[in-house]
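Appendix B. Chain record.
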Amino acid sequence: PTPEPTPTPEPQSPTVEPTGAPGPTETVVPVLDGAALYQANCAGCHGAQGQGARARALTGIGRFFVDDPSPLADFITNGGSQMPAFGDRLNPEQVDAVVQYVVETFA
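Structure tokens predicted for this chain:
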């Protein structure tokens, strides 16, 4: 008698643990957390609580931009007398997130 062939097990895909790094089909979304962006880009000069440090305090400034935040967005993007421009570091959505944070937090 001829021996029966032993069935070969189906190959299984290896288990891949998530690394936190985006894969080929994932999209990296820019950070839109206004508070985090403020802390990373603004707090060094304006203070973590907007109290001022090397640059003017932001306390109370938000109320001037409630109805029209565009001048503040423009100032952050293009800079001003002593403030550097952040348009080369932050995309427009990130600038808007910082503006929203400043207007809401430092009203």
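Further analysis of this model is presented in Appendix C.
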